[in-house]
Amino acid sequence: MTTEREPLLVVENLKQHFPINRNYTVRAVNGVSFEVYPGETYGLVGESGSGKTTIGRSIIRLYNPTAGRITFGGVDISGKLDAKTEKMLRTQMQMIFQDPMACLNPRKKVVDIIAQGLDVHDMCQNRVERNEKVAAMLEKVGLAPEHAARYPHQFSGGQRQRVGIARALIMNPRLIIADECISALDVSIQAQVVNLMKDLQEETGCAYLFIAHDLSMVKYISDRIGVLHLGYLVETGTTEEIFSNPIHPYTQSLLSAIPHPNPIVEKQRVSQAYDYATSGIDYSKGEKRHIDGQHYVLATEEELARWTR
Hints:
- With 309 residues, the chain is α/β, with parallel strands linked by helices.
- It has helices spanning 52-59, 83-92, 110-114, 116-120, 127-140, 157-169, 187-204, 215-221, 239-244, 249-256, 263-268, 276-279, 301-307; strands at residues 9-19, 25-36, 41-45, 67-72, 75-76, 93-96, 175-179, 207-211, 224-229, 232-238, 287-292, 295-299.
- A hairpin with a 5-residue loop joins strand 1 (9-19) and strand 2.
- The mean pLDDT is 89.
């Protein structure tokens, strides 16, 4: 599906470290590499603290990467950005944040929140065109044009998240980084927002980097999946490969923890425990091992032979 096309985003050996003091540094991301192709959804999953959000913020350059290379649309965006590259990045890559209330300015009306990117980059000729674009985008995400005159506190959580999606989409980006954009919403609202994102992707052709810890939702929306643990990408592959043939013990433990809606099957489900400290696995010594198709696992030769025996 994706091998014949050029990737839209290429992340190579990305490292993001945060020095706390002279003696201690938090190594949030350690040598992560993956690609995102035009029009596809790449899901990043893992437990809290695994480095998912840090990767997203490093890619969009809210953080300056410690090491590694990030290429977006054939342009290197990992170093110091010149004016032309920064404008390209800010217009063609957008982010949907996790908290639908904290990411919206409570002092601004929805019309000004959604149109902020248009105003910054002078993408409208006049105020009439600006308001027309905002009204059209509100209708596209399932809100009414009259909602443009309201403030964020006047909306529900699901409606606020739709405002966040509209703010990202109005720039007509090529890539949207969705950072756990449904985790703060009720289950019924989660389904509405995810279906909305899928419909908008079919309409606009944008790509998603979908960051989440809900494996069932990631399975539903993603074309390919990367599994993160302690800042390492331990396994990556297509959705079918990851769910039907998980190789890494951490991936197996994540999938075994998914509850089943059938109570009879759920009674027989046995979750698999995984403790990195006692597993005998050293991520720093592992290398990217090819399994099948686009399926890769971070492991040494001995570990891979043991897991696939």
